[in-house]
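Before the break, one more example. Copy the sequence into your notebook; we will annotate it together after we see the structure.
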Amino acid sequence: MRFPFIGLAALMVAVMNNAVFAADAWPSRSIRFIVPYPPGGPTDLMARSMSGRLSEALGQSVVVDNRAGAGGNVGAEVASKAPPDGYTLLMGAISTHSINASLYRKLPFSPVKDFAPITQASIIPLVINAHPSLPMVNVKELVALAKKNPGQLSYGSSGNGGGTHLAGELFKTMTGTDLLRVPYKGLNPATIDVIGGSIPLVFNDLTTAIQPYKAGRVKILGVSTAKRVQQIPEVATIAETVPGYEAHTWFGVLVPAGTPQPIVDRLSRESMKILQSDEIKKRFAEVGAEPVGGTPQQFAAFMAAETIKWAKVIKASGARID
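Here is what the structure looks like once it is written out:
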């Protein structure tokens, strides 16, 4: 009666040996790096910057594949259904692996079960832009003005459930203010309307805000990160007035769940080296991004905390997409 078990044990050993062999031989062909957003944006630039260095490190081409749509869900679904063999990467984001889990009533993939984290690639700070004519220069004065005029001060943001929308909702909750949100299909038109005086404020990302600010066309009342950012160190954080406030857009590299651990470990090591390089720091800074890095375990813990945080904001704001 022991023979079947001996045969099963031998089969399991063979499978494990094949997996190790496959991992050792990896990569033997090109790797696809899925970006769930259109070409030309910050996510695309960061992925392409990393892909070039990964190609050098791995000895195989790493090709960016843009699969935009549904707030990043289209590209994330494609990646989730790819074979877990190390030949598909995803540049995930706060939307695909945090916000969308609560924003959408049903996702075509599981942000947790369908993916294995590699490393957190970057964050992009958010800012509060104001028209230069407004009689306020910091967050404290903004809060005072908003409380004096409840429901009368409007702000622009990205569409329903976007990072800047939820950053505004979090700000309202933590400050007890009543700001009127004006949704836009993108941050560029919202910024243009602030510059033109059509709306007074916009919760923006630093990528979009930095050039108009440097040109004196908008004010920046505060930045959303825990610490002041290198590009605009003269601007205080929102948290200096509203303790505990923190919100930013973030991105990270993931692979389909079940990818052999040796491949995950190799990708993590190489990615963290790349993110520490001066070249990548310079390229990321061009879009207002700051490289992060960290182990797969650290990235997993970060995503879990972000998912809980934004689920509460989404529930409180009523932002849901069927």
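The radius of gyration is 22 Å. The chain has two domains: 3-123+249-317, 125-240. Try to locate both features in your own notes.
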